[in-house]
Amino acid sequence: MHKAICSNWRAALLSGLVIITSGILTLGLPPTPALAGCNSGSNPNTDLLSSFNCQALATGANSLAVGNNALAVGGSENTSLGTSAITGGLAAGSFNTAVGYGAFGGSFGGSGNNTAIGANTAATGGGSIAIGGASTTDNAASAGGQDSIAIGINSNAGTADGDGVPLTQNSIAIGTNSNAAHTNSTAIGAGATTTRANQVMMGTGSTTYTTPGITSAASKAVQTGPLQFVTSDAGGNLAGRTAAELGLASAGDVAGVNSQINAINTQLSDINNRLSSLSTEARRGIAAAAALAPLITPSAPGRTTFSFSTGFYRGQTGASVGFAHRLQWSTPLIVHGSYSNGGGGEHIGRVGFAAEF
């Protein structure tokens, strides 16, 4: 609606200002620190309050209007560049900029700091920006909400009432035919249109989305706490939900499964510890067996021999001592024994006798 308001107001204002300008020039009033002119044709004029030949008019202090029917009215520090470009407004709006044919940077309620760039663009909300010209006002970018931004052909950010007063604020529309008509809303992509306040709308029903970084290690590293599923309804509204919320399992089921998983993990940890202990014991036993002292036969009856030896197996070390004694019998008879240890509680022993016939 504010596009139509801007167009109608521009025509009415221009007609009235032509009459006022004629009166100012007839009375010979001293010019203000403003500049207006066409700077083209056979009769350029840039040294008066207005350039009547092309109806350019700058009324505010430090304002500038350049171009046929260009207007810089209302407050101060307004700049209009282009045919029919208008800055200012029905109240004393200042610091407005309009660049392009028919561009309108101003307001209907006195707020300034509006910027309109492109043919027929309109920035009227106060602190608003409109970029994206078109051949008609209906297709140009329009920012009617306070502190709103519209970028793209036929983009629209914010709404205004019948008098042009902003009804919404802080809206952003980026993309051809994008529309952010709600407070604190953002529309991104061609045809994107918000439906409620505090909403970010991206694209349309035919839009596809690609986010290569979503599977990266960096993205996963910043996630904390329990993970959730991202769900969408038919309208594309996104939300994060747990399995219980989706009806895949009740909260009790999830808690029970988690308890069982924790118990299994505990048992697996215990099994791993036991396997590690058994592996160590086996290696020590093998090292002790490898170190078991051999039998050394005494040279004569009544003599005793002693021996010491070591053994090694896969990082474990065994040590062994042994003895043998030859009895003083008519029949040669030897008793012997040995002991070996691979470390810790792994003990190996051996006793026996030997005879000669």
From TrEMBL:
Gene Ontology CC: one annotated term: outer membrane
Domain of life: Bacteria
Entry-linked Pfam families: YadA_head (PF05658)
UniProt domain Trimeric autotransporter adhesin YadA-like head: residue ranges: 58-70, 143-157, 169-192
Signal peptide start-end: none
Protein name in UniProt: Trimeric autotransporter adhesin YadA-like head domain-containing protein
Organism: Bradyrhizobium forestalis
Phylogenetic placement of the source organism: Bacteria, Pseudomonadati, Pseudomonadota, Alphaproteobacteria, Hyphomicrobiales
